[in-house]
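Form 7-S
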Amino acid sequence: MNEVKRTPVGRIAGAFGLKGHLKVEIISNFASRFDLGGTLFIDNVAYKIQESKLHKGRPLIKLSGINSMTEAEKFQWKTLEAEGEPDLDDDEYLLEDLIGLKVVTVEGEELGLVEDIEDYPAHEVVLVAGIRIPLIDHFVKDIDLDKETMTVKLIYGMKPGEDETFHQG
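Output:
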């Protein structure tokens, strides 16, 4: 039997209110995963989204079968998963697909492999060989999943040690 892939989309940050609402930290760029009527999974158990709204910039959801603050608190720090993968445009990708890509500069210098993607308020940041590269068009010039490469343009000061050589003249 073919099992449908599930994608992590959020982490439960805690309970909210007396009726079992959940505060969610999003770990997906697809906020539609939290839309009313959708299905999310916690520990392989399916829950229907009965209510969904934004509260202080985060999803606040009510899932079927979780009806009190006490029940909701049991799910703190659990991962929410959605079934399947989102439909992506040609220039879109899942962040987890970037881990392990070979990173090269536009000049051809190999920097290493993508070790992690860090989430910051303004944008994600790619971590490779001690270098943090903002995941924006200014720095990331090309992502080729077929060739498993990411081409980047660095500016002076991004590599470790470069910022220590500044001299006034």
